[in-house]
Amino acid sequence: MSKKSRSKLWFLVHSWLALPIWFFVLIVCVTGTLAVVSQEIVWLANPQMRASPPSDDAPLLSYDQIIAAIKKAEPQTLVESINRPDESHFALDVKVSYPDGRSVTVYVNPYSGAIQGTAPPFNFQAFTRALHGWWLVPFTNGYSWGWYLVSFLGLPMLASLVTGLVVYKRFWKGFLRPTLRIRHGARIFWGDFHRLSGIWSIWFIAVISVTSTWFMIEAILSDNHISISTAPVAPVVPRESVPLTVDGAPAPMISLESAIREAKERIPGLEDSSVSLPANAYSHLLVSGRSWYPLIYQSAEVNPYTGDISTTRLLSDRSGLELVTESMRPLHTGDFGGIWIKLIWFFFGLILSMMVLSGLLIWTKRTALATANALKRNNKRPRAALTGQPAPAMSREATEGSR
Amino acid sequence: MSQVAAEKPRSPLSRFWHTWRFHINVLLLLVPLGFMPKYFADAALFRGDTGLGEREVGEIQVGPWSLRLAELRNAAPVSDGPAGYLKSFNAALCDSCRDQVKATYLRIGKPRSLRAAGVIFFGTPYHMGAALPVPEKTKNDAELWITMEGWDGAMHQASIPLSQASPATVAWLNRQGGKP
Questions:
Q1: pTM for the complete prediction?
Q2: Is A283 on the interface with B (CB under 8 A)?
């Protein structure tokens, strides 16, 4: 095959990768982009979720003080877990259980302990994630087929990136001489836009497509019951260490502060961003958070009666493979370094959505042109309308790309 | 290369594809729309907005204590791969026993001791859940045993027919046709 026809073939592959399902791909990109900043969107929409420090040196309440404040305000409400979001302008997310059996998240002010409100029944964050992540298809037996449907897109996306770079000859020159011609018609503009945003998003498209492909592999492994995990099976609190009480009242537990202290002693640099209370009399207190490596959480399970650390899950416990695979999700969502990283992910998410759209616009305009040409020829040669429509545009694009 | 393709006569399949290829988008968009009611129903179920579970079994007396039992789903057990089939139940403790009960367990068949009382419930006394393993060879007249343990060391047990706890599970067992 000649060099020219090979590049035509590459071009054809590139043009057709997303086409028949372009709108699906676009919506997946848009929902993913929204999901990146969904927490911030809810924060903007819902004042109860906000908690700005009253002053720069305002002290944060300890988790024990938070629980005490909740108990004082609503004596019947039971706390299940407390989560401290990354940024200080967010209220704490406290998962609570009410006597009527509802279990909801409430927003608690980290400075005063006041319950500022209940998370609305429509959980925008969870909804955008479910729509983006598994197309709302329920998980009934293993992974949902919606999960496969969406994560499979990682492969054509990766192929788009590779074929795009092959087709766009000497693309690195685009970094030095960025072109975005506005006055030469829509076709030229969208072509320039597609190429310019493409080269600047090489890293992002690579990250998103590789991590999506991993999500697909993860599902395949899980559905075939293949585990790559080195995490030990979580032990229960030994029966002997749960004290019996004479009066039949629940045995006293250690304070959350002392559990956190134990955990921090064992895991240097641990941020106590999440605490889960024991889910029954024989389960542990779980303290988890990030440390120097922002992509993976470390955790410690603490015996709630003795304060002994039962198990830990550290960075150093993970195999090399796990360090890579467990980094995939934060890399995909951009949730590992606060608002700025999220905004970068959001921006490139928008660009990626626009690339799907601009790719389609180019295709449509080119097809319109090709169809018009084909129709002209049709008058001379009856079967010409059926000849491959992209052909004239392809040769045009090839020259455009090699400019 | 496109010329080559054009010389070949088109098969009906190829013509069908060319006419309808962009309608795949519409089909794909109908998927989340179709599942949306189910998504919101499930979200409400897991928040506890629609009660303890899809089907309430009722209040069951266990010695001096009692608990309200419900099936999370009014459906057959689900396969968990090597772990076999699991059936999820939810429960809530009675108001007066909330602070006395240390742990609650579920098991098919009478437990021989407290240490073999079955699966333990996780959650708060207001709303807790347990995933009960249901072996495929379970008899359809089997009994579901509830064991409750007090903070003072007391233990109380009660049982109800599996057909009362989960008719869907018994129907599923009957469909298995007495697998060995």
A1: 0.89
A2: yes
